[in-house]
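**Backbone geometry record:**
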Amino acid sequence: MRKSAKSRAEEQFAASQKKANQALEEKEKARREVAEHVAMLRGLRLAKEAADKAAAEAAAPAKKSPTKTKKPAKRMPQPHRY
């Protein structure tokens, strides 16, 4: 017995929907993998920066002398030059 045109169309539509869903899942999986990789690299970078900062603080002298800030010299108003 031959299938009706409607049932064949429904089967084709279901197959195309299945392919589209699979492609969407693959794209989402790839996006998640990239996001996880970036998060891992960010964590490593932050840990390295923290370790570098701690090492720099340990190597720096323990006692820092406060520096005095100079007040800017008062300037005389300049005449307008045309």
Observations:
- The chain has a mean pLDDT of 88.
